[in-house]
Amino acid sequence: MTTAPTRVYAARLVGLPIFDPQGDQVGKVRDLVVALRSEGSQPRVLGMVAEVFGRRRIFVPMTRVTNIDSGQVYTTGLLNMRRFEQRSTETLVIGQMLDRQVTIPSSGVTGTVYDVGMEQARTRDWVLSRVAVQEPSKTFRRKGQTHLVEWRDVEGLTRREDAQGATHLIAALNEMRAADAANVIHDLPAERRSAVVAAMDDERLADVLEELPEEDQVEILERLDSERAADILEEMSPDDAADLIADLPPETAATLLGLMEPDEAEDVRRLMSYVENTAGAMMTPEPVILAPDATVADALAHVRNPDLPVSLAAMVFICRPPLETPTGRLLGVAHIQRLLREPPSTLVAAALDSSIDSLRLDASIDQVAAHIATYNLVAAPVVDDEGRLLGAVTVDDLLDHMLPDGWRDAAVRSHNPHAGVMRRG
């Protein structure tokens, strides 16, 4: 291997791009795989879990890593595209080692692992050499004291815990996009996944749940108590919540709908009543809706909401009152690109585009796709027979329904046709 830093910390590796010798990015680092031995013996780093294009996770042996610097990882380009499957003798550093409770015998300090450092031994193997430990907080506002110690000076790292915490793993997950965090959670062992789900706040769990495969969504929701499961569903977008509830047993679905806030439950029930793979079933009932007397400043304030999906922030829908779906008559849409060219005090009605045709509730998925493609839209209004706005179909909603089941798990090919294939030894 070529020149490498003397020590690299695992938490800082997560998310770094992985490049082949030609400088093309082939994936991102998601975890480290190690073989734990005895307490005093430094674990050997077997390789990295990498996410390649198509969100497939593969194993990259450390023998294929040629260089690691502060911003990227370089490989030989010879990668096995087979999906990573963890073996019983292997431990994931981010997924399983963070938050383990350990003791530093020399000082009597007990705390949890929040990072580990690895370096190359004389044999050129990579080994875990340092452990970052955080003591429990003694006050509500301050974090506990931290310690950076040698691997051999810590006890408890090889011990499996029945009630392992999740604080530091969740901190790492919170730095990722929801789709990336979902991939990490999908690959966790069952008991570790349960601990993480239990410790996540409702809003973040809802975001991640929307990105998980259907079977994972159902499994996680069914393990939660009913009150919390209903709270999670309320935090999800109504169309995603409707899709998830439809996959639950009828008695479970009825219970959760009964526990949700009436307005939230009503939106979900309405979406569930529409025929599958139609505009009505795909749409979200919560686009940005304004009255014609709203100003450009009002519109821009609404689309600045960081929780608003990008596709819904591209336009606002101008309607007669009431302004909650089903609204009064839809007058037209105002594109954000146009609004940015107008003075803030201008009425949005002055920038109204009334030429865009609306979709009907029963429009098929092919009709929706043709409509969005024809008019180069990222979102399209859905109206009833009286011209009242019922919701909007976004391009990401459309793709979710057009792609085949399990598309996230579909096999992907390396984009480098000259790259060889190495078997995992």
What is the total tally of β strands?
Answer: 18
Work out the strand percent: 15-25%
Helical percent range? 25-40%
Number of helices: 16
- In CATH, the architecture of the domain at 289-401 is Roll
Mean pLDDT reading? 88
The CATH homologous superfamily name of the domain at 289-401 equals: CBS-domain
In the CATH hierarchy, the third-tier topology of the domain at 289-401 is known as: CBS-domain
Structure description:
It is built from 16 helices and 18 strands. It is an alpha+beta fold and 425 residues long. Among the domains are: 8-85, Roll (SH3 type barrels); 289-401, CBS-domain. Helix 13 (296-303) links the parallel strand 13 (289-290) and strand 14 (315-319). Helix 4 (178-187) crosses helix 6 (202-209). The longest helix has 11 residues, at 262-272. Residues 352-410 form the CBS domain. It comes from Nocardioides luti. GO terms for molecular function: magnesium ion transmembrane transporter activity.
